[in-house]
Design brief:
37% of the residues lie in helices and 17% in strands. With 179 residues, it is α+β, with helices and mostly antiparallel strands. A three-stranded antiparallel β-sheet has the order 1-3-2, covered by helices on one side. A hairpin with a 3-residue loop joins β2 (156-163) and β3 (167-177). α4 (78-93) packs antiparallel against α5. The longest helix has 20 residues, at 100-119. The radius of gyration is 33 Å and the shape is elongated.
Length: 179
C-alpha cells in the first residue's frame, strides 16, 4: 500500500465511525479504486447528532401505526353512564338550594367528576363531552336542545334530569367515536 492509500483508508474509517459514510465500506472503496475507475464515491451527511446532544423527547416518541379499525370494539355503555349521572347529581345536589354563584361552580365541579368517572370505565377511542345545566325551579318551563353531527352506528349519548324543591339539573354525556 502506498502512503496515499493508507491516508484514504484512515479517512474512510473515521468517516464510517462518525456515521458520515453511508454506503461504502473501506474494502468497497479500495475495490472501486483498483478497478481503474477512481470516482468520488464518498457521500456525507450534512447533519449529525452526537449521542449526548439528543433531545430526551425525541428518544421517547413512539411511532404509532394505523389500525384501520373503522368501528368500536366495545360500545359506549349507556346504562352504566346513566347510573353514574344519577349518582353524581343526587349526591351533589340533594340538599342544595338554588344560588346562582354556587350553581355556576357546581356545574364545573359536577361535569369534571362525571367525566372522570366515565373515563374510568376505559372505553377505548371515544371522545367525551360532558354538559351540565343547573337552573332555578320557579314555576317556569325551559327547553334545552343540542345538535351534533355524528355516526349513529358508533356514537351515543347519555342524559339524566335531577329535580329537588328549588333547582333542576340536566347532565348530558356525548360519546363520539374517534376513528
Amino acid at each position: 500500500m502506498r502512503m496515499s492509500d493508507i491516508a484514504k483508508d484512515k479517512m474512510t474509517r473515521s468517516l464510517k465511525k462518525r456515521g458520515s459514510l453511508s454506503s461504502l465500506s473501506s474494502h468497497d472503496f479500495q475495490r472501486k479504486e483498483l478497478r481503474g475507475r477512481i470516482k468520488d464515491c464518498v457521500s456525507t451527511v450534512s447533519h449529525m447528532d452526537e449521542p449526548g446532544q439528543r433531545d430526551v423527547a425525541s428518544c421517547l416518541t413512539v411511532q404509532m401505526e394505523n389500525t384501520y379499525q373503522l368501528g368500536p370494539t366495545k360500545h359506549f355503555p349507556v346504562v352504566t353512564v346513566n347510573h353514574i349521572l344519577k349518582d353524581v347529581l343526587t349526591n351533589y345536589l340533594q340538599e342544595e338550594q338554588y344560588e346562582p354563584e354556587l350553581c355556576r361552580q357546581m356545574t364545573k365541579t359536577i361535569s369534571e367528576v362525571i367525566k372522570a368517572q366515565v373515563k374510568d370505565l376505559l372505553v377505548p377511542r371515544y371522545k367525551l363531552i360532558v354538559v351540565v345545566h343547573i337552573g332555578q325551579r320557579n314555576g317556569q318551563s325551559i327547553q334545552i336542545g343540542s345538535r351534533c353531527l355524528w355516526n349513529p352506528k358508533s356514537d351515543n349519548f347519555s342524559s339524566y334530569v335531577f329535580r329537588n324543591s328549588s333547582l333542576f339539573a340536566l347532565a348530558n354525556v356525548y360519546a363520539v367515536y374517534f376513528e
